[in-house]
Amino acid sequence: MARSYITLTDPAGAAAVLTQAHDIFQQRPDLGTLPQRAAGLRSRLATIRAGAIGPSALTAAEMRMLPLLATHLSFPEIGQELFLSPHTIKSRSKSIYRKLGAFSRNEAVTRARELGLLEG
Predict the structure, then answer these.
(1) Does the pLDDT of residue 55 top 70, yes or no?
(2) Which residue ranges make up each domain of the chain?
(3) Contact 55/63 with Cβ under 8 angstroms?
(4) What's the CA gap between 93 and 98, in Å, rounded?
(5) 1.10.357.10, 3.90.1310.10, 1.10.940.10, 1.10.10.10: CATH of 58-114
(6) Torsion angle of the four alpha carbons 49, 3, 40, 15, in this order, in degrees rounded to the nearest 10
(7) CB 34 within 8 A of CB 77
């Protein structure tokens, strides 16, 4: 899993998986070469640009909003659907764009589909 996140340039996802693996290795040090392989992935993770944020960094609230970005609904209409203010919707959409490396709503939807976060 960590290798997949690294390939997707998703350091948050890779770090989360490697943290879980580290915890397992603390309890089970007898897992052969897995700890060394995880260390190698940790080294690769360090080479990913520091500011990179990937799709696994999307919050639950952003994941609930993501399918609505793929519709014809405006931000105020999305706000009505989710019982949130238009300002909150605008803030969340900007956060989604940033995390997916997109500069527009259309790019964010396309990227989400490519990553399997939305049906396409």
Answers:
(1) no
(2) 2-47, 58-114
(3) no
(4) 9
(5) 1.10.10.10
(6) 60
(7) no
End-to-end CA distance of the chain: 23
| pLDDT tens, position by position, 65-118 | 999 999 999 999 999 999 999 999 999 999 899 888 889 999 999 988 888 788
Q: What distance in Å separates the CA atoms of residue 101 and residue 52, rounded to the nearest whole number? A: 9
Given this model, what pLDDT does residue 44 score? 82
d(CA 60, CA 72): 22
Buried b (16+ CB within 10 A) or exposed e, 35-58: beebeebbeebeebeeeebbbbbb
Tokens of 29: 């040090």
Amino acid 19: pLDDT: 86
Token pair in block for residue 108: 């964010």
Q: Tell me what pLDDT residue 94 has.
A: 93
Predicted TM-score of the model (pTM): 0.59
